[in-house]
CobE/GbiG C-terminal domain-containing protein (Marinobacter nanhaiticus D15-8W), 124 residues
Amino acid sequence: MKVAGFGYRKGARVDSLAEALALAVEAHGDIDCLVAGSRKRGAVEALGLRRNLQVKLVDEGVFKEISTMTQSEASLREKGTGSFAEAVALAGAGRDARLLGPRMVSKDRMATCAVAEVAEVPWL
């Protein structure tokens, strides 16, 4: 199963997340569900409604323990992880998940999307 996790800047529109998701789908194939950080979820929930995909919220407190492919200095400074989207995807997919590649970035640079894969998502 493939899980898409998102990171986005304040003021990002759902269209920015949709664009980042489209890039991820193009690279990795169809997505089974979306994941958002518990404190940053509104746009992801709106995208889930638009795409008819279930949305899972994950506790952002675990992100510092998650190793990511991307190592953004800004993300490390502000969120304590190299990539918020990659950490969200891995946390949402659960144990034994792996990233399918680095995060995808929307053209306006307001949103990122990363895809993690796992044999079975425990909450679906």
Summary: The mean pLDDT is 91. The longest strand covers residues 2-8. Residues 2-117 form a domain with the Nucleotidyltransferase; domain 5 fold (CATH 3.30.420.180). The two ends are 10 Å apart (CA to CA).
